[in-house]
Amino acid sequence: MSLKNFLCYTYDESFIGLLTCVYEAYYRKEIPDEICKKDSLVSSFLYTYVDIKSDEDKFKKVYDALIEKISKAFLQKLYFAFLSEAEGREILIYKYIRLGFKLKNDIEYNLHNEVVIEVNKLSKKSGMKSIECLVS
């Protein structure tokens, strides 16, 4: 009996780095099980780790594709979710992006989907904090 190794992409905690992970997953035809911050990584024999270096060109391609194929509002929502700094937000955002490319603008109407629900929660939480900072 063989154990499946889980795939974990590691990145530098930047938004550029996260969208670079999305790019790499697509072009490598891989689906990571986790996306982890390099600095907080606890190594495990169950995981295969792939270090993804931030790349502005790859980031820009994903960034532009999100706006073109889905919407600017979608990109803004996932950015606010990223700013939430919630544990596990990276893989959630990755799943949200995959779903967005599949459903396009219809993603906003999938309010029963667990990924959409969680990203909406993180985005609202982070968005409200941003507004509070501006008003203070």
Number of extended strands? 3
Which stretches are poorly predicted, pLDDT < 50 over at least 5 residues? 130-136
Estimated helix fraction: 55-70%
- SSE string, helix = H, strand = E? EHEEHHHH
Largest sheet: 3 strands, parallel
Description:
The chain has 136 residues and is mainly alpha-helical. The protein has 5 helices and 3 strands; from the N terminus they run E-H-E-E-H-H-H-H. It has helices spanning 15-28, 56-69, 72-83, 89-103, 114-135, and strands at residues 6-11, 34-37, 47-51. A 3-stranded parallel beta sheet has the order 2-1-3. Mean pLDDT is 88; it is low at 130-136.
Summarize the structure.
The chain is mainly α and 136 residues long. The protein has helices at residues 15-28, 56-69, 72-83, 89-103, 114-135; strands spanning 6-11, 34-37, 47-51.
Task: Jot down its keywords.
3-stranded parallel beta sheet; 136 residues; globular; disordered C terminus; 5 helices; mainly alpha
What's the helix and strand layout?
Elements: E1 6-11, H1 15-28, E2 34-37, E3 47-51, H2 56-69, H3 72-83, H4 89-103, H5 114-135
Parallel strand pairs: 1-2, 1-3
